[in-house]
Amino acid sequence: MALKDRVLSLLEENRGSYLSGEEIARQLGVSRNSVWKAVRQLQSEGHGIDGVTNRGYALRADSGVVSVPGIMKYLRHRDLALSVYPTVTSTNTLLKQAAEDGTPEGTVFVAEEQTAGRGRLGRSFYSPAGTGIYFSILLRPRMPASESLLITTGAAVACAQALETVSGVETQIKWVNDIYAGGKKVCGILTEASMDLESGGLHYAVLGIGVNLLKPDGDFPEDIRDKAGALFSDDRDGDIRCRIVAEVLDRFLDLYAHLTEKRFLEEYRRRSMLTGQSVDVLRGGTVTPAVVEGIDDAFALIVRYADGRVEHLGSGDVSVRKNPAESPKFHGEI
């Protein structure tokens, strides 16, 4: 670990309190001049570090730069290999490249901004700096490709629980991978996998997560404004993004250890925002009205069409009908 990161770790552990340069130097086994240089470098990177004569250095409570030490401060799963970047094209894209090069499971890329963030079905994911947090974890699960949906659904439960714990805001899951709060999407999940053709299992999976903490200046782009939302209405304490990353990773990895046992199925069902809703099933350019009856044991969406036919959707997309009263009458309705 670079000296500046070791200095930052100490300051993170004592956020808001002063540590003398002499004390930092003593704990790290370096010179005070080396500590001064490290602090200057951290300040140039945007970390809110105050230096006061005869008191030392303190990381301000409102310092909001995301860092490895900042995340590790809250993380229970200490064996993860974290890297934090100010800006990337896409954490999923970069981690997939690393996976092909043999990077081990548990590698996590975190970014404060994505210039080419991606969502499901080829959609883009708006990922501006300063208002969200975006991260991906590399997995090498021992499971058949047919069960890969468990990664996404497990992540959805972990995200919903984590965001609710950190923010106090009630969260729901929109099948299959979106987290909603206050009727708006605040978190998106994208799982991309490579299949081992010989075994029929997964060579690797990259799980990407993006969270909207605040509305960006000038609001969201017009094409997503009606759907996109933010977890908070005003700015929060400086390390909130570090806390969210750690909480999501910890909760997901707790589930990941027993993923195929589906222990989170009932929690997923409880948080399903589509159950009982009138929806449009979107498939191949066609739009078919239906009513959602629930989630089956394989996490497929159970829908009933107007002719009474029931289907279990294992993939695809649905949207809530804006005017369900205008839908055609369903079989059995009066």
The largest sheet, given as strand count, sense and whether it forms a barrel, is: 7 strands, mixed
- CA-CA gap between termini: 68 Å
Q: Can you tell me the residue ranges where pLDDT is under 50 for at least 5 consecutive residues? A: 328-334
**Average of the residue pLDDT scores:** 92
Structural class: alpha+beta
Q: Count of DSSP helices?
A: 8
Please trace the helix and strand order, writing H or E for each element. HHHEEHEHEEHEEEEHHEEEEE
Estimated radius of gyration: 22 Å
3D shape:
elongated
Strand content: 25-35%
**How many runs of DSSP E, i.e. beta strands?**
14
The largest sheet has its strands arranged as 3-4-5-9-8-7-6
Can you give the helix content as a percent range?
25-40%
What are the salient characteristics of this protein?
single chain; 334 residues; alpha+beta; seven-stranded mixed beta sheet; five-stranded antiparallel beta sheet; 8 helices; 14 strands
